[in-house]
From TrEMBL:
One of its GO terms (molecular function) is DNA binding. PANTHER family: HTH-TYPE TRANSCRIPTIONAL REGULATOR CYNR, TRANSCRIPTIONAL DUAL REGULATOR HCAR-RELATED. Belongs to the LysR transcriptional regulatory family. This is Transcriptional regulator. Residues 1-58 form the HTH lysR-type domain. Keywords: DNA-binding, Plasmid, Transcription, Transcription regulation. It comes from the Bacteria. CDD domains: PBP2_LTTR_substrate. GO terms for cellular component: protein-DNA complex. Pfam families: HTH_1, LysR_substrate.
Length: 288
C-alpha cells in the first residue's frame, strides 16, 4: 500500500465521485481508477460501490476510512516535525565531565545572543568517549583535552590548567603556600572519579606508599567544589579562578597540567560549528 493510494481513497470518499476526485488530484480518471483497483487488490476487499451518480463506501471502505485518516494525519505530522527540524538548527556539544558547568553556560549564552535560533544539545563524558562520539558523528564539537591524537579532527587550543591541591578554608593546609605529596597520607580525600590523571595519580601514590583517606567520590566538578566548601575533605583538581571558600596549593613533587581545546570534524564543519569555535576561542575562561 502506497501513500498516494491512501490519498486517492480519501479524496474519492470526500467528493463521492471518481470524476471530481480526479479533478482535485489533477489526475486522469483512468489513473485514479487503476490506483484504487491496486489498493483493493492488496487489501482483498472492495472499498467502493460502483454505479449510480454517487460513489459510496462499502462496509469495508468505511472501516478502512478511519485508518486511512490516521495514516495521513501521521504523515502530515511527520512532515511538520521534519520541517521544524530543518528550521531549527542544532549544535551537539560534547564536554568533559571535569569542566565547570558555569563556564559552559557563559559560553553558550554569548553564542546564543548571536545565534538565537540554534538549539544546544549538551553531552558530557570522558576524553575517550568524546573522541569516539566525534568520530562517529554523534556530536559536532567537543571541549576536551588536546593530546597527540588530533587527526582526523581539527582543533583549537583554548587554555591550560595546572592540577593543584584544593583545600577548604578550615583546613590547616589553607595557611600554607605549598605541600608535599607525602603530606596527603591519611588526609580526608574527595576522589574525582573522572579525573584524566586518575591512573597516573594512583600509581604515584602507591609507589610512594601514600594513602589518603577517601571520604567521598564524585563524577562532576560542581559536586567536588560543593563538598570542598563544606569542609568534607581535600582534592587534587584543576585550578579555576574566582572560587570562594577554597584555597589552591601546588604539590611540589607532583606536576600535572592539562590543555583544554575544542575539536571538530573537518568533513562535517558548518557555519554554526565555525562560529561556535570562534566564540570558544575568544571566551574569557575563568583560569589563571
Amino acid at each position: 500500500m502506497d501513500l498516494y493510494q491512501v490519498r486517492y481513497f480519501l479524496t474519492i470518499a470526500e467528493t463521492g465521485n471518481f470524476s471530481r476526485a480526479a479533478e482535485r488530484l489533477y489526475l486522469s480518471q483512468p489513473s485514479l481508477s487503476t490506483g484504487i483497483k491496486k489498493l483493493e487488490q492488496e487489501l482483498g476487499v472492495a472499498l467502493f460501490e460502483r454505479g449510480g451518480r454517487r460513489t459510496v463506501l462499502t462496509q469495508a471502505g468505511r472501516a478502512f476510512s478511519k485508518n486511512a485518516t490516521i495514516i495521513m494525519a501521521q504523515y502530515q505530522s511527520a512532515l511538520h516535525e521534519l520541517k521544524g527540524f530543518h528550521a531549527q538548527p542544532v549544535l551537539r556539544l560534547g564536554t568533559l565531565t571535569t569542566m565547570r558547568i558555569g563556564e559552559l553556560a557563559d559560553l553558550v549564552s554569548r553564542f546564543q545572543q548571536d545565534r538565537p535560533g540554534v538549539t544546544i544539545e549538551l553531552r558530557d563524558g570522558k576524553q575517550e568517549q568524546l573522541r569516539e562520539w566525534l568520530e562517529e558523528g554523534e556530536i559536532d564539537v567537543a571541549l576536551t583535552i588536546l593530546g597527540d591524537r588530533e587527526e582526523p579532527q581539527a582543533s583549537i587550543s583554548l587554555f591550560s590548567q595546572p592540577l593543584l591541591l584544593a583545600v577548604p578554608l578550615s583546613h590547616p593546609f589553607a595557611q600554607r603556600t605549598s605541600v608535599r605529596l607525602a603530606e596527603l597520607d591519611g588526609q580526608p580525600f574527595i576522589d574525582r572519579t573522572n579525573c584524566e590523571f586518575a591512573e597516573r595519580e594512583c600509581e604515584i601514590l602507591e609507589a610512594k606508599n601514600i594513602c589518603p583517606k577517601v571520604v567521598a567520590r564524585a563524577s562532576h566538578e560542581e559536586w567536588v567544589i560543593s563538598w570542598l566548601r563544606a569542609g568534607l575533605g581535600i582534592s587534587v583538581m584543576p585550578k579555576w579562578r574566582g572560587l570562594t571558600g577554597i584555597v589552591y596549593l601546588p604539590i611540589v613533587d607532583l606536576n600535572f597540567q592539562r590543555t583544554i581545546g575544542i575539536k571538530w570534524r573537518h568533513q562535517q564543519s558548518s557555519e554554526i560549528v565555525e562560529r561556535f569555535c570562534h566564540y570558544a576561542a575568544s571566551h574569557n575562561w575563568a583560569v589563571d
